[in-house]
Structures are given as structure tokens and as C-alpha cells.
């Protein structure tokens, strides 16, 4: 390169005629000399380097300071990087990467990037190298309102990979059910105590009828210990469901589910409840159902996803896999799980040798977990084998065999119309449960012992508060402790718990 000179000319105001003032050769570049010593600047002086480009090069970054050397805009607006702007006139075809001022990254590949899904060049974004893929962390809680990935086209959203936890506990139906189950458990203890006193004159009778203090009553029937245990179980239930579920596509879950249209006349369903399906519509009614399924707690795969604005009309129903199911009473591994027959969302466990002929078409699944005798258990159940159809066929076959035997014995004519047997399945014996005493009798029993029952629950409240149970955050439990008799009477009338009461009535039915 040749020598570089700098010439300076000036003109008189309004003349337009310039005269040469000086002409000097440039022997050095002060900017380049400054760059040679930039490494040794005081840290405060480095602030001025934020608007300098001396460390950027097309061959890569060298000797840069990450805290100061980055790309940005001077006016706090979006930073947009574009390519091929000279060759592409249609804005829809332009390629760009935008870093919005709010921190969002947007990639627009334009209509020229397309092709088969087997070609890497067909994808606007690729991730190559390393041992891992993409890491996604969100700030909010992991609930169904927080999507990790959303799939859509220009028309609408078609699916998501979303977080999955239970509803907020306070005020939600799952939470209220936990409080209700505590009421049922304590009612069971009261019933056992009264039954024991009436039949055997045991400890409960002596303390319940002798004017003993509430503390002695609690101690006598073990309610204080049970209350503390149940409080611990409720806490464990909250913790488990807040930490052990994943996302609705790939998680620690173990069932395949689909969204099914729900009966709008029903109340909101709860995970693990038993439901009936008729004509593709799901409800608590299992009497006239075609299939007997369960509300999924946390599906590993979820199909038939409706549009977001329509989700409220649907329920997640488990079709196959290991599914938690709400069951009343004791359960042994290998028991069949059937609907209770009361359309209340819970099931009952029947040992294979105790199954009635009409029970087989109603089998939900097989228990893979045992449980103690209790008003409610949540049992891991294997579902998915087409037991309903198998049971229906077995039922028809048995009816035909019975008819042949009766014909040979001369007791009945031979029926050759196979459709006859398909319409008489409902007439076969079934296992069902119902209350063993009337609601009026139950209410009389509660009124008879109201004073002691109130003392009992007041003492139980003290035990729970000593265990750290916060009643201000548990309105249903607070109501139970303050007015237990009214609470239990109302609970008695709730059709959702008819099966539970049929279990509890075994302790009340022999009382006067």
C-alpha cells in the first residue's frame, strides 16, 4: 500500500472557495497502538470497550472479555439477524433470527426451508454434537398450564408436552376427598368402639358411658394415634404427587390414556375414580355402561387431545397399563376390581373364587397390590386386557350350556337363537353393595352420642395441632372438627360415598 496523507482545507463563510491549510503524511495509526495496550487497562476503563469491535474477527473470538464483548442494540429494541436479503424480495421467504428485547428467541426459516422429515436440511433448527440434546427449564410450577413443548401449524395447536401435577390442593376436589376420608376413618373407629361396647361391654363402653374426659376417650379407641397417622399420610400424599409425576408424554407414569368426552351433568371427576363409558361418553354411571375404565392419574401417553378451549368437556381416561384405582375395603394381589354398582367412582375387590357370573363382563382389571381393610385404598391395578368382552362371551357360553343341560333334563326347551343369550346378561347375578342401615337410624345414633362425639373430635383436634397440622389451611378438616355430627350426617347423604358407608355400616347395624 502507498503512503497515506491527510489534507485540510477551509473556506470563507459564504464564498464556497476552499484553500489548502495543511498537508501531512500519516506515519502511524493511534487506534491500532491503543489496541496493543488494551489488555493492561484499569477495569474501570474496560467499560468503554462495550461499544468497541476490536476483539471480533471472522476467524473466531480471540482474547475477548465475555463480560463486555457481546452483540446488542443501542436503542433497546429487538436484535434481528437476516440472510439473503438482497436475493429474496418476498418477506415470507426471508430468513431471520430475532432476539427480542424481552429475551425471546425466534427463528424464521422462510418458505425455502422445507422437505422430507428424513433430511436435516428440512429443519429450521438442528442440534448436533455433545452427549446430550436440548435442556428445557421453566420458571413456573410443573402443571398442565405450563407447556415444555407445543406443537402447532398455522391453523391451531395440535398437541403439547406439558407438565403434570395435581390441582392446587386448597379448594380442589382431591384435597376435599382427603379430608372426607379422614372423616370416614374416624367414623369407622367410632363405629367399632360403639359396636364393641354394645356387644362385649369392652373398654369403649366403660369410658364412653362413664363420663370420662375426651382425652381418655381418644386414648381408649386409639383415635389420637390414628389422627396423627392420617395427618402424616395426607402430608406424604401431597409431597408425593408434587414431586413424583413428570410430563404427560414421557414420565414415571405407567398407563396409556385418551381424552374422552364427559357427561356434562356429572360432577368433576377425580384421578383413580372408576367410570363407565357408553357410546364414547364417560360418566360415573356404570349401570348402563359398555366399558368400565378409570380416570388416569398421570398418563405416559395421552391421545385424542382436544383443542385448548374444549378441554373442559373431556376427561383423561386410562385404557392400558398400571393404573391407580380407588377401592373400598381389603384388597389382595390377584383380586378382580369391579365397579361398586353405586355409580360413585369407587371399586370393590372380589377374589376370583367369589366372582358371580354377571361380574366378569364388569371387570376393570386385576389388583397388583394388596391393602388392609379400610374405607378407601388406592390400588395399583393392571388394566387393558379385554376382560369385558371375554367375560361377556363366557357368560353367553355358560347360559347356552345351562340351557342344554335343562333341555336334556326335560326342564326347558332348547333355545337355538344365539341373540337371546346376548340380551339376558343383565339378568345374571352380580356382586353389589349397599348401606346396611337407614340414614334415619344413623342420624339417631349420632344424636344419641352427640356430646361425646364432639368432645372426641375436639380432643382429636388438639392432637393434630400438636402434630403441626394447620387447620387454617384445611377448611374441610376444620369444619369436621368443629361440627362433626352435622358433617357426618351430610356425608352420609352424599351419593359419592355410598360404598364407603356400606363398609362402615357393619359396625353400626346391630346397634339399637
Topology at a glance:
Layout lengths: L3 E8 L6 E9 L3 H7 L42 E5 L11 E5 L5 E4 L38 E6 L4 E6 L10 H28 L2 H6 L5 H8 L1 H21 L11 E8 L11 E5 L2 E3 L7 E5 L5 E3 L10 E15 L7 E4 L7 E4 L14 E3 L9 E7 L3 H22 L9 H5 L16 H10 L1 H17 L8 H8 L1 H10 L4 H7 L8
Parallel strand pairs: 8-10, 8-12, 13-15
Antiparallel strand pairs: 1-2, 3-4, 4-5, 6-7, 8-13, 9-10, 9-11, 11-13, 13-17, 14-15, 14-16, 16-17
Helix pairs in contact: 2-5, 2-11, 4-9, 5-9, 8-11, 10-11
Question: Which oligomeric form is depicted?
Answer: single chain
Shape: elongated
SSE class = alpha+beta
Q: Extract low-pLDDT stretches.
A: 197-215
Amino- and carboxy-terminal Cα gap: 117 Å
Cα-atom radius of gyration: 37 Å
Strand/helix succession:
EEHEEEEEHHHHEEEEEEEEEEHHHHHHH
Instruction: Tell me the fraction of residues in β-strands, as a range.
Output: 15-25%
Mean pLDDT: 77
**Separate helix tally:** 12
Helicity level? 25-40%
- How would a textbook summarize the main sheet? 10 strands, mixed
In total, how many beta strands?
17
Structure keywords:
512 residues; alpha+beta; ten-stranded mixed β-sheet; three-stranded antiparallel β-sheet; 12 helices; 20% strand
Outline of the structure:
The chain has 512 residues and is of the alpha+beta class. It has helices at residues 30-36, 173-200, 203-208, 214-221, 223-243, 387-408, 418-422, 439-448, 450-466, 475-482, 484-493, 498-504, and strands at residues 4-11, 18-26, 79-83, 95-99, 105-108, 147-152, 157-162, 255-262, 274-278, 281-283, 291-295, 301-303, 314-328, 336-339, 347-350, 365-367, 377-383.
Amino acid at each position: 500500500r502507498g503512503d497515506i496523507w491527510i489534507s485540510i482545507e477551509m473556506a470563507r463563510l459564504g464564498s464556497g472557495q476552499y484553500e489548502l491549510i495543511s498537508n501531512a503524511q500519516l506515519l502511524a495509526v493511534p487506534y491500532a497502538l491503543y489496541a496493543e495496550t488494551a489488555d493492561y487497562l484499569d477495569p474501570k476503563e474496560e467499560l468503554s470497550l462495550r461499544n468497541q469491535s476490536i476483539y471480533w474477527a471472522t476467524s473466531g473470538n480471540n482474547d475477548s472479555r465475555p463480560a463486555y464483548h457481546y452483540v446488542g442494540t443501542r436503542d433497546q429494541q429487538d436484535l434481528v439477524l437476516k440472510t439473503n436479503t438482497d436475493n429474496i424480495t418476498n418477506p415470507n421467504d426471508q430468513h431471520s433470527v430475532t432476539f427480542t428485547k424481552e429475551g425471546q428467541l425466534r427463528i424464521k426459516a422462510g418458505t425455502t426451508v422445507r422437505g422430507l422429515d428424513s433430511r436435516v436440511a428440512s429443519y429450521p433448527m438442528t442440534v448436533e454434537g455433545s452427549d446430550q440434546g436440548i435442556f428445557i427449564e421453566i420458571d413456573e410450577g410443573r402443571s398442565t398450564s405450563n407447556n415444555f413443548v407445543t406443537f402447532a401449524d398455522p391453523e391451531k395447536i395440535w398437541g403439547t408436552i406439558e407438565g403434570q401435577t395435581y390441582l392446587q390442593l386448597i379448594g380442589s376436589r382431591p384435597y376435599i376427598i382427603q379430608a372426607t376420608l379422614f372423616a370416614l376413618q374416624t367414623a369407622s373407629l367410632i363405629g367399632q368402639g360403639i359396636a364393641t361396647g354394645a356387644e362385649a361391654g369392652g373398654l369403649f363402653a366403660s369410658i364412653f358411658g362413664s363420663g370420662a374426659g375426651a382425652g381418655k376417650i381418644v386414648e381408649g379407641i386409639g383415635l389420637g394415634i390414628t389422627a396423627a397417622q392420617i395427618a402424616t399420610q395426607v402430608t406424604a400424599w401431597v409431597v408425593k404427587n408434587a414431586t413424583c409425576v413428570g410430563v404427560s408424554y414421557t414420565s414415571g407414569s405407567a398407563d396409556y390414556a385418551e381424552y374422552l368426552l364427559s357427561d356434562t351433568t356429572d360432577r368433576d371427576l377425580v384421578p383413580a375414580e372408576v367410570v363407565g363409558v357408553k357410546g364414547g361418553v364417560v360418566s360415573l354411571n356404570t349401570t348402563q355402561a359398555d366399558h368400565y375404565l378409570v380416570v388416569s392419574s398421570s398418563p405416559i401417553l395421552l391421545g385424542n387431545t382436544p383443542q385448548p378451549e374444549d378441554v373442559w368437556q373431556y376427561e383423561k381416561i386410562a385404557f392400558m397399563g398400571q393404573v391407580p384405582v380407588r377401592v373400598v375395603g381389603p384388597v389382595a394381589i390377584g383380586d378382580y376390581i369391579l365397579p361398586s354398582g353405586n355409580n360413585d367412582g369407587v371399586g370393590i375387590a372380589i377374589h376370583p373364587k367369589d366372582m358371580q357370573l354377571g361380574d366378569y363382563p364388569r371387570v376393570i382389571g386385576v389388583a397388583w397390590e394388596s391393602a388392609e381393610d379400610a374405607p378407601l385404598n388406592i390400588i395399583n391395578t393392571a388394566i387393558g386386557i379385554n376382560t369385558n368382552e371375554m367375560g361377556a362371551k363366557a357368560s353367553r357360553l355358560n347360559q347356552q350350556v345351562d340351557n342344554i343341560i335343562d333341555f336334556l333334563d326335560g326342564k326347558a326347551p332348547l333355545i337355538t337363537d344365539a341373540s337371546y343369550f346376548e340380551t339376558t346378561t343383565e339378568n345374571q347375578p352380580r356382586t353389589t353393595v349397599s348401606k346396611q342401615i337407614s340414614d334415619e337410624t344413623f342420624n339417631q345414633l349420632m344424636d344419641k352420642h352427640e356430646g361425646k362425639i364432639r368432645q372426641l373430635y375436639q380432643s382429636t383436634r388438639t392432637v393434630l395441632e400438636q402434630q403441626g397440622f394447620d387447620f387454617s389451611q384445611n377448611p374441610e378438616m376444620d369444619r369436621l372438627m368443629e361440627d362433626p355430627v352435622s358433617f357426618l350426617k351430610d356425608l352420609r347423604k352424599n351419593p359419592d360415598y355410598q360404598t364407603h358407608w356400606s363398609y362402615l355400616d357393619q359396625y353400626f347395624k346391630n346397634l339399637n
